[in-house]
Specification:
Chain B: It comes from Shewanella atlantica. The complex is a heterodimer of chains A (about 250) and B (about 160). By secondary structure, chain A is mainly alpha-helical. In chain A, about 65% of the residues lie in helices and about 10% in strands. Chain B is globular. Classes of the chains: A mainly alpha (about 250), B mainly alpha (about 160).
Chain lengths: ~250, ~160
């Protein structure tokens, strides 16, 4: 294998690992996919070291090493991309794809999200069913639906302007709680506490939390702890938003 | 018996909706959304069944999360997609929302008061412990199949 081929393969692999980390895959999956892709493309071994905001990758073939570092940034969770990269890895392993096909498909990847008009009512319905599962009555479910739909609308609109995620969560929690406490203010429902609990559940950082525990359980303690810290910060900032809204409404204080 | 069945069906339906909603937030591809719904419904109704038998909520959550992990590994093998894609959306309905909310409310009240009241403190501790342990049971239960069966080989 010539040196420039090894360069090229290493670049593709590190690009794949970078994309996986940016769109929210767990460390074990990142390591596994980059090693399997490396083997499939003809490298002797691929070693990878992941930290909270960068990754270092070394490829070895014929006694010749290439080490390269990439900065990673969070781009939000996008499972479509993770799925696509996994498929590329599997197809390469089966021998259907060579380096050129891998390069072509990786360069064609772009993040696509669900449009707002589906996302907003769907999250409203989700939080309304949480409220129903917690034992709320119909009026409570309706309040939850409106509160969390509006909250999701705010969240998506803020996210489009690339504000800090913590700020986004605080503002969204504030708006959501402001609407959800209408049940208290006008005594519309018999279970006024449940809309407030159910409608802010859309802010639960589910993916960072599960990823962090499964990273820590599988031995990537470093990344796991940093993801845990991120999830905790997100929770704290939404609590701040909730508290401000409740103080404005004069509840529990 | 009939009542239990109806309650389980009700549970399954209303936990399938949040599973799909959150799967859309995580941008799961459209063709996999029904599987997220199925996994979410199975997980939450299994937990309700275990709670009905009389298991404490932490253990019931742990068993339900392990079941979700098993089911989603089956889906992952069939579709060649990462199992966490289905699993995280599926366990969202089991997140201890009311416990977490009660903890936070009691904490805020405790901050606003000038002296420490025993009722609020006990509320913080009991609700907080429940939240932490249910969350731990969820995530460790989800990792269980890959810790027990897929120790040395990849899932797909």
């Amino acid at each position: 294998m010539y040196a420039d081929t090894q360069n090229d393969i290493t670049r593709q692999i590190v690009r794949v690992a970078q994309l996986l980390l940016a769109y929210g895959a767990e460390s074990e999956l990142v390591e596994e996919i980059s090693q399997r892709l490396g083997h499939a493309l003809g490298l002797a071994s691929v070693e990878i070291s992941i930290s909270s905001n960068s990754l270092v990758l070394t490829s070895l073939v014929h006694g010749r090493c290439i080490t390269t570092t990439r900065r990673t940034r969070e781009h939000g969770i996008n499972m479509t991309i993770v799925c696509e990269l996994q498929r590329i890895c599997l197809l390469t392993e089966k021998g259907l794809y060579g380096l050129n096909e891998v390069r072509k498909r990786v360069s064609r990847i772009e993040p696509r999200t669900y449009p707002k008009r589906y996302l907003v009512p769907m999250i409203g319905l989700s939080c309304a069913s949480f409220c129903h599962l917690f034992g709320g009555d119909i009026a409570a479910c309706v309040i939850t639906f409106f509160a969390s739909s509006l909250g999701m609308f705010v969240r998506v609109s803020i996210a489009k302007h690339h504000f800090n995620l913590l700020l986004n969560f605080a503002v969204t929690a504030f708006v959501t709680t402001l609407i959800a406490q209408l049940g208290y203010q006008f005594s519309l429902t018999d279970t006024p506490k449940l809309p407030m609990a159910a409608s802010v559940l859309m802010l639960v950082p589910g993916f960072p939390m599960i990823n962090s525990i499964s990273d820590m359980v599988k031995g990537h303690l470093n990344v796991g702890i940093s993801r845990w810290g991120h999830a905790t910060l997100l929770t704290v900032s939404s609590v701040i938003g909730i508290t401000i809204a409740m103080q404005l409404g004069g509840l529990f204080l | 018996m009939m009542e239990l069945l109806l309650a389980l069906l009700n549970d399954a339906f209303f936990s399938a909706i949040p599973a799909v909603g959150f799967a859309m937030v995580f941008n799961v591809p459209k063709r996999f959304l029904p599987y997220c719904a199925v996994a979410g419904a199975i997980g939450h109704s299994f937990r309700t069944l275990l709670l009905h038998i009389g298991l404490p909520i932490e253990w019931a959550t742990f068993a339900a999360a392990a079941l979700v992990g098993l089911v989603t590994i089956g889906f992952a093998k069939r579709h060649l997609a990462p199992p966490l894609m289905y699993a995280v959306a599926a366990i969202i309905p089991m997140i201890p929302g009311t416990y977490a909310f009660n903890t936070v409310i009691a904490l805020v009240q405790l901050t606003a008061q000038s002296e420490i009241s025993p009722e609020l403190t006990s509320q913080v501790i009991s609700n907080g412990l429940k939240t932490v342990f249910i969350l731990g049971a969820l995530s460790v239960g989800l990792a269980m199949p890959s810790l027990l069966y897929f120790r040395t080989r990849p899932v797909i």
